[in-house]
Amino acid sequence: MIEPAVLPWHTQQWQSLQGARDAGRLPHALLLAGRAGLGKGRFARRLAASLVCTGRTAEGDACGQCQSCHLAKSGSHPDLIRVEPEAEGKMIRIDAIRQLSGKSVLAAQEGGYRVIVIEPAEAMNRAAANALLKTLEEPASRTVLILVSSQADRLMATIRSRCQSVRFGVPPRAQVMQWISGMTQDADTEALYAISGGAPFTVLRAAEEQWLETDHALLDELAQLKQRRSNPLAVVEKWEQRPIRGVLDGLKRCLGDLVRVGQGLPRDELCHPGQHGDLQSLAQGIDLTRVFRYLDDIMNVERGLVSNLNEQMILEGLAAQWLEMTRPGGR
Ligand SMILES: [Zn+2]
Fold first, then answer.
1. What's the gap in Å between 276 CA and the centre of ligand 1?
2. Tell me, which fold does domain 8-169 have in CATH?
3. Is 103 a residue whose pLDDT tops 80?
4. pTM for the complete prediction?
């Protein structure tokens, strides 16, 4: 387990849980919920390390020195159990959860808590979720289950209701900007903040994956197609050279901005405030209800991606749809 980082926007959640622990009121099950990019997984690792440590610091963090901490760091602590999909985007299956209930009936072996982290919790398939429910109904003593989810609304209501929810929100802008300035050399932090919606790790991801560059290219390509200045096949060829999820995410941001511009929202609510003028001309003459429908279609495509649809066909379909909705005089 990697040394957990202390993040400034986690202070309140951290102190509240440490207070509950000190008072002997730590819940058996926690649901760390909030949008992606807020460091919930790091919080879970920090908390898990703290719960198995036998000599906490004044802030409640793992000491890093005791036998438990050494075991935790080497990833071989018997009371620290992590459940995750075998690969990103895959489901957590019932076997992984069944093994867990077998383990959790034993008392914690190292004198601290037994901690089970399930991340991302929404990756549990239905059978796995039902199996987990049984574990939640018969909690073992000194066992803490930590569910981490960026899409908590996709969890079964019966699971949510048995967990104490720990909410994570987007931190104040000034706090994010200060933290970001220490994390990236990228000069365009204002634009990166806007494009990522303010979640700190999403800002870093946007810098790493060059969202600004690809979105600007995408806006340009959409304008060229609208004005019939580019061959759609040539544009699709360019899209094919990027990861398809990146193209879809970029389209969602750009079209989302078209909607916001069309609705007259202020610049600072855009993903691309610097492209406000371009977006205004792009939005001209386009029916907003069709943009909403286009966004729905993109989300449907995303859901279908796991079933191996032909990427080229998807991108050609999206380019054709854009051409159709920007047809001069067309509705
Ligand atoms: Zn320790």
1. 52
2. Rossmann fold (3.40.50)
3. no
4. 0.86
